[in-house]
Amino acid sequence: MQVPSHVEYERATSVEHALSLLSKPETRVLAGGHSLIPMMKLRLAQPEVLVDINGLDELAFIALHGGQLRIGALARHADLLSSAVAGECFPIFHDAEREVADPIVRLWGTVGGSLCQADPSEDLSAVFAAVRAIAVIRGQDGERMVPVRDFHLGPYQTVIRPGELLAEIRVPVLPGTGSAYQKVARRVGDWSVAAAGAVLRLAPQGSRGGRGGGQPPRAGGSGGVVPPETTPPVIESAGIGLTAVGAEHFVAAEAEDFLVGRVADHDSFAAAGAIAAEHCQPAADQRGPEDFKRHLVAELTARALRRAAARVIP
Ligand SMILES: Cc1cc2nc3c(=O)[nH]c(=O)nc-3n(C[C@H](O)[C@H](O)[C@H](O)COP(=O)(O)OP(=O)(O)OC[C@H]3O[C@@H](n4cnc5c(N)ncnc54)[C@H](O)[C@@H]3O)c2cc1C
Known about the structure:
By secondary structure, the chain is α+β, with helices and mostly antiparallel strands. It is 31% helix and 24% strand. It is built from eleven helices and 13 strands. Strands 4-5-10-6-7 form a five-stranded antiparallel beta sheet. The chain has a three-stranded parallel beta sheet with strand order 1-3-2, with helices on one face. Strands 11-12-13 form a three-stranded antiparallel beta sheet. Helix 9 packs antiparallel against helix 10 and helix 10 (266-279) packs antiparallel against helix 11 (290-310). The radius of gyration is 20 Å and the shape is globular. The structure holds flavin-adenine dinucleotide.
């Protein structure tokens, strides 16, 4: 089936107008349309009314405000890729956006659509989980905030209720952090076979127990004893997001817990990668068998962590 069933079309002129249109049954937001339209053609989605939000410039912004990076749901992939402020605060966004599809998809596809589609292979879902973003959801009764780590209920399912829309994503910007994203795809522009995003917050050099901690760092593994002047900093917090490998809420929680309080060295990162690989649930498919995907998770997680650590700006 290549033709959508009959559908009504409404173009929203404001967020309030969109919300009033969405209050009717069987309506669906139309953003970039790069996931929804193909699903309608295949009759996997059969909304009765499409509410086009493409005219809502009030949802198309990227700005630093009050210690948070704020990204409107209608910001396009290309906007995020070209945003200097987003790249400075979180290089992980530019790493990931360079790998999302191709320029045509990036010019139309939106950040909000990527999150709301809740495809297990969507790169930005893992990225926003890694940076511990907050989703701002609007309905006719007002606004609610949901951590992105709680936003996805499962494949193609989110916490967005009928009548609501995702308005914005907010990311707290903290000093001493670095971030990176590493993806393997079968060819340029393809969906991930597997990918990993990492965000690290390191204690300042010299405070071996971490910020306010005072405890000595846990051993990093088989790295051996190193002189104090070359001791790598301690990890205060870690965020790890995984794409396309069945990680619950796109998060490698066990690997994150393992890293906190350890020295930021290659042994710690390799061990965290192994833990992430052990705890995810990749499915064998046309992109590869399960053991190959676990191998990728271990390697890509370690690489993303190493790169994130190297990018930390004190
Ligand atoms: C050829 C191709 C290759 C691709 N490759 C990749 C890739 O490598 N990596 C990757 O991550 N993605 C990839 N994508 C997906 C791309 O990122 C899409 O842009 C994204 O899936 C959906 O964004 P959209 O704006 O087009 O959403 P739409 O298709 O318009 O909407 C998707 C879903 O989200 C809902 N929705 C949209 N916006 C909102 C909102 N603000 N509030 C509530 N609900 C909303 C819609 O109702 C719909 O259910 C690819 C897509 C294509 C066509």
